Automatic annotation (TrEMBL):
Catalytic activity of the protein: propanoyl-CoA + hydrogencarbonate + ATP = (S)-methylmalonyl-CoA + ADP + phosphate + H(+)
InterPro entries: ATP-grasp, BC-like_N, Biotin_BS, Biotin_carboxylase_complex, Biotin_carboxylation_dom, Biotin_COase_C, Biotin_lipoyl, CPAse_ATP-bd
Pathway of action: Metabolic intermediate metabolism; propanoyl-CoA degradation; succinyl-CoA from propanoyl-CoA: step 1/3
Domain Lipoyl-binding: 605-681
Entry's EC annotation: 6.4.1.3
CC terms in the record's Gene Ontology section: mitochondrion
PROSITE patterns on file: ATP_GRASP, BC, BIOTIN, BIOTINYL_LIPOYL, CPSASE_1, CPSASE_2
Protein name as annotated: propionyl-CoA carboxylase
GO molecular function, one term: ATP binding
Gene3D superfamilies: 2.40.50.100, ATP-grasp fold, B domain
Domain of life, per lineage: Eukaryota
Length: 684
């Protein structure tokens, strides 16, 4: 059924979600309007819309996408009769929803009163409890000071979670395990909450030790109908922000009665607040007892909504637009919608998983979606939601998300297999990103088992993601195939340059570009049949020459699908000839004769310049403050400085006992990744 009231939609957002919303709007016959900041003037969502308007001034979100006056003026100037806020920015701003109504513009989202009620975590908890929804034990009110927070925490019992009363997305949330951490986290969380949401109120709750993050997606209409979709599991998180999500939950899927209770309570809450549009009720499920507790209700479309669409065959944005148009939900959706198949989503961020997930910036020098990827699930099991292309910039002003890769299958194993294949073929070059980490998660034994909690990353990657492990953890037979592929690529490149391939066995070297793991293979053979010797074992390998016959600038995938590899370039580290990506990780490769390899062992490497002892900033951002003055002695683990990046405050701590020697930057400076902030002397 076509829309009857809405004609022209302004999308008050940017990036992939803006493009995503426009897709559904166009399918329903709506004209689309994009808004953009100065930095986004040439962004993909701007080009994608029927019309585009710059809002506010400058590039900061506060003076552009968060400028409600400018967004409303853009709607009036372009004749937009409805506004979809996407997620983030103004999506959960009740005052903005009210102003839309006052201006005669339809806000494609819930009523302002519902946003108000659910946006305040203290009030939402009271409402949920009154509606018969299970709530987590905690202090039912706002803590007034660090001392008050400590008293409340000791009354509840450690560990506790301090979190912002307003907002979400992992900002203003800290876990504390003793009184000292409560006091420290109180200062950080209040400051973070104030900057992110304009509201520094905090609440304190019991921190469940073995929690799974499970949420119920719902859509409610103005006719009293509520549709509850299959649950999503979002337990793979860093800094309380989701990285890999799936639907349904492997834990809940084995307990149909648990799903039914969670969906019923979500519907009760929606009814209690007079909710309409799409919303998500987030729950903590105790993995030891299967009890669940209300966390919060997000009064907007979620980042991870595509996995729900994949297992329900529904377009949630289209449903939001139909509800905003005054239509009732289709009768077959009212109540509980069962899952069909399985879906996995990886959020691709410009961040460094090997360095504590610090944000990265830069230009995309090469970008290509996985083959057979689509915008909606119709003829493929791979979907990519993105708003980037070759040359796109990822800067410091906004969230570092590049895209979302969503795959589906008839069961969890099939969806995971599709996800791994998609990530292997996903081309993202020019900056550091988390594709290798997401690929590793989707192969990790604990994740494959389905038995994991929100502590998954903390437990299984305590020192960060080790890129070298990608090679060392591969099966020897697969490594042998990779070595043969490198030999074939090297021969093809020599042929292009008119060079002769040496006769006899060759030595293939592989080394991860950011780690010291180096593997050595002796490969003998030609024309697709090889004998590979590696660590005392011999492997017989047969490969179709078509595996490397394609142009070297395109992803190369072995014909049997067991090992996937992208050829990146010849721009490898000194001593190597080729740069590849294996399971997302940058790998340098070289082919040498046995004689050349033997001689190289006796050559001394260039001496590395000893770096002065000091604190280097691990990410680009703004220096908020130093926590230690010149001459101060700082113990290992204590804070040295605080840097804000991508709206998150990052505490930089001493790795040993040090005495501060010199401060090399000023508070308020915009600092680059690896820029030295201070020098110090390591003290015994």
């Amino acid at each position: 059924m076509a829309l009857t009231n809405l004609k022209r939609l302004l999308v008050a957002n940017r990036g992939e979600i803006a493009c995503r919303v426009m897709n559904s709007a166009r399918a329903l016959g709506l004209d689309t309007v994009a808004v953009h900041s100065e930095a986004d003037a040439r962004a993909k969502h701007v080009k994608y819309a029927d019309e585009a308007v710059q809002v506010g001034s400058g590039s900061a979100a506060t003076t552009s996408y968060l400028d409600a006056d400018a967004v409303l003026e853009a709607a009036r100037a372009t004749g937009a009769d409805c506004i979809h806020p996407g997620y983030g920015f103004l999506s959960e701003n009740a005052a903005f929803a009210r102003r839309c109504a006052e201006a005669g513009i339809t806000f494609v989202g819930p009523p302002a009163a519902a946003i108000d009620a659910m946006g305040d975590k203290v009030e939402s908890k009271r409402i949920a409890e009154a509606a018969g929804v299970s709530v987590i034990p905690g202090f039912n009110g706002v803590v007034e000071s660090a001392e008050h927070a400590v008293a409340v925490a000791e009354d509840i019992g450690y560990p506790v979670m301090l979190k912002a009363s307003a907002g979400g997305g992992g900002k203003g949330m800290r876990v504390a395990r003793d009184a000292r951490e409560v006091a420290e986290c109180f200062a950080l969380a209040t400051d973070e909450a104030k900057k992110s949401f304009g509201d520094d109120r905090l609440l304190v709750e019991k921190f469940v030790a073995a929690p799974r993050h499970v949420e119920i997606q719902l859509v409610a209409d103005a006719h009293g109908n509520v549709a509850c979709f299959p649950e999503r599991e979002c337990s793979v998180q860093r800094r309380n922000q989701k990285v890999v999500e799936e639907a349904p939950s492997p834990f809940v899927h084995q307990r149909p009665e648990l799903r039914a209770r969670m969906q019923a309570e979500a519907a009760q809450l929606a009814t209690a607040v007079g909710y309409t549009s799409a919303g998500t009720v987030e729950m903590l499920v105790d993995a030891t007892t299967a009890d669940f507790y209300f966390l919060e209700m997000n009064t907007r479309l979620q980042v991870e909504h595509p996995v729900t669409e994949a297992v329900s065959d529904q377009d949630l944005v289209a449903l939001m637009l139909r509800v905003a148009d005054g239509q009732a939900l289709p009768s077959e959706l009212v109540g509980s919608v069962p899952p069909v198949g399985w879906a996995i989503e990886s959020r691709i961020y410009a961040e460094d998983a090997a360095r504590g997930f610090v944000p990265s910036t830069g230009s995309l020098t090469a970008y290509a979606n996985p083959p057979a990827s689509i915008e909606f699930f119709h003829a493929s099991d791979v979907r990519v939601d993105a708003a980037v292309e070759d040359g796109s910039e990822v800067g410091i002003f906004y969230d570092p998300m590049i895209s979302k890769v969503i795959t589906r299958g008839e069961d969890r194993a099939a969806a995971l297999d599709a996800q791994r294949r998609a990530l292997d073929a996903y081309v993202v070059e020019g900056l550091v990103h988390n594709v290798p980490f997401c690929r590793d998660v989707c192969s990790h034994e604990a994740f494959l088992s389905g038995d994991y909690t929100t502590a998954f990353i903390e437990e299984h990657y305590p020192g960060g993601f080790d890129e070298g492990s990608v090679l060392t953890n591969m099966a020897p037979q697969d490594l042998a195939k990779l070595a043969c592929l490198v030999l074939g690529v090297d021969a093809a490149s020599k042929e292009v340059r008119g060079e002769l391939q040496p006769a006899g066995p060759q030595v293939v070297l592989l080394r991860t570009a950011r780690a010291d793991a180096e593997l050595v293979f002796e490969v003998d053979g030609f024309d697709g049949a090889y004998t590979v010797r590696y660590e005392g074992e011999e492997h017989q390998i047969e490969l179709d020459k078509a595996a490397w016959a394609a142009p070297l600038a395109t992803p190369l995938v072995l014909n049997d699908g067991a090992v996937a590899c992208q050829y990146v370039s010849t721009d490898a580290r000194p001593g190597f000839d080729h740069a590849l990506r294996v399971r997302g990780v940058r790998v340098d490769a070289a082919v040498r004769t046995p004689q050349t390899h033997a001689l190289s062992k006796h050559m001394k490497p260039a001496a590395a310049e000893a770096a002065a002892a000091g604190l280097a900033c691990p990410m680009p951002g703004t220096l908020l403050r130093f926590e230690a003055e010149v001459g101060a002695t700082v113990e290992a683990g204590e804070p040295l400085a605080v840097v804000e990046a991508m709206k998150m405050q990052n505490v930089l701590r001493a790795e040993a006992r040090v005495v501060v020697d010199e401060l090399l930057a000023d508070v308020g400076d915009v600092v680059a990744a690896d820029q030295m902030l201070m020098t110090f002397v390591v003290s015994d």
